[in-house]
Automatic annotation (TrEMBL):
Residues 1-19 form the signal peptide. Residues 185-251 form the Transglutaminase-like domain. Keywords: Signal. It comes from the Bacteria. This is Transglutaminase. InterPro entries: Papain-like_cys_pep_sf, Transglutaminase-like. It comes from Pseudohalioglobus lutimaris. It holds the Pfam family Transglut_core.
Length: 325
């Protein structure tokens, strides 16, 4: 018996234990901007997005270091917050902003709730690069209809997800990708998360399923701290009887083994900074709405200004007992 017990013990010790995805992450996230090259003919306004606060994301602490004191504002349609720095026309020199947040982020699951008519209309309408009911979508919609189990919103939503994951490739080659352009995704069938989810939202809304675009940054959980190279985006859609259903089609395409994980749930490995497309932060941006908000937005003399900014993003995990570490 002793011999058999030792064999069983050795087998248990040799079998790796599957990592359990934590329901919550706590981390510091730092967003740094250095803006140096501006013309001298007008005032400069710099807008930096601030993280969302909701049931899945709490901001426990905010630290701001800015070369010029700024103020917090709110975008009126989706409620996105931002930090605005104004440099008067008669002042020269660079603008630097360092924002550090202590964030608790929880795993997002389907959320029951009532969708009011204002949000229903908002999340069913077209955006500049997300057309609804366009004839370009008709062949894909026909394939989605053939794929779905029945005509219910639940079956249609799942069929849209499966079609996008199976037919769009995650890659960054050449130019044209990365604008969240449904037309691009339809014709080229590849891109990054913005292209995946622009097509996903266009299809969902065309089928009468409200869908909203959310954007932020990934927060890796395989190391304690480090740099973050770029943004990430995802989707929530409203399905009757289920509520807001979280989806991440681009991550499912990148990680086929996690396909089911990214339909109906989103892990806590991210920070949410903004919601929606075609955003208006100022009078000047009314004529040129922001495609999306994750990087800084700049105006010079009240005119949207394209300028190369030095940006750095980094994180430090605080719940170091995560099984992924």
């Amino acid at each position: 018996m002793l011999h058999i017990g030792l064999i069983i013990l050795s087998l248990l010790m040799a079998t790796p234990t599957a990592a359990v995805e934590p329901a919550e992450h706590r981390f510091e996230f730092t967003y740094s901007v250095l803006a140096g090259e501006f013309p001298n003919h007008g005032a400069v306004d710099l807008y930096v997005p601030l993280p969302v606060e909701d049931a899945h994301q709490q901001i426990l602490d905010t630290r701001i270091e800015s070369s010029i004191p700024g103020e917090i504002g709110v975008e009126p349609v989706y409620g996105n917050r931002y930090y605005r720095v104004h440099r008067p026309a008669n002042v020269n020199g660079p603008i630097s902003v360092d924002l550090t947040w202590t964030v608790t982020r929880s795993r997002v699951l389907a959320q029951e709730g009532v969708l009011d008519e204002t949000d229903r209309e908002r999340y069913l309408q077209s955006n500049n690069l997300v057309p609804v009911g366009h004839e370009m979508l008709d062949p894909i919609r026909a394939e989605v209809h053939a794929l779905r189990a029945d005509e219910s919103p639940q079956a249609t939503a799942r069929a849209i997800y499966d079609w996008v994951v199976d037919n769009v490739e995650y890659k960054k080659v050449g130019t044209g990708w990365g604008n969240g352009d449904t037309f691009w995704a339809c014709s080229e069938r590849y891109g990054n998360c913005t292209d995946f989810h622009a097509l996903f939202i266009a299809l969902a809304r065309s089928e009468g399923i409200p869908a909203r675009f959310e954007m932020g940054f990934p927060v890796p959980t395989d190391r304690l701290q480090g740099a973050v190279s770029g943004y990430h985006c995802w989707v929530q859609m409203y399905v009757p009887g289920t509520g807001w259903l979280p989806v991440d089609a681009s991550e499912a395409a990148k990680h086929p083994q996690d396909r089911e994980r990214y339909y109906g749930s989103q892990p806590a490995d991210r920070v949410h900074l903004s919601t929606g497309r075609d955003l208006v932060l100022s009078p000047a941006s009314e004529s040129q709405p922001l495609n999306y908000l994750v990087y800084p937005y700049v105006e010079v003399a009240g005119v949207p200004w394209k300028v190369d900014l030095e940006t750095r993003f980094s994180y430090r995990l605080l719940n170091t007992d995560s099984p992924a570490i």
